[in-house]
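Q: How would the structure tokens look for this protein?
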Amino acid sequence: MDAWIDIGLWISYILFFVAIGAAIVLPIIYSLSDPKSLVGVGISVAALLILFFISYVLSSDEITNPKAAANYGVTATGSKTIGGSLIMMYIMFVGAVIGVVVNEVIKFFK
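A: Here is the predicted structure in token form.
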């Protein structure tokens, strides 16, 4: 019985990685046939990188619990990266909420 479970797990792992590979490769193949679609992707990636850079600059490298940081191997640079990621997430969340509210208000008055 355990052998069937192991086989099922390996098949699910393989199918998972095939799906991840297809989700990455197929849009790239489609984009190469339509190069104009890559402009929007490039602008989006650049905007996310700029937003992360701003968030990273705003974040602190302070470690408030050195004992826990030592247990998990968190350095000052890691703390700054984590802080920047959190600030970026907060900014994107607020932006999404504002976008939904604005969209609903515009639909209401249309």
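Residues 76-109 form the longest helix (34 residues).

The chain has a mean pLDDT of 91.

Upvote if useful.
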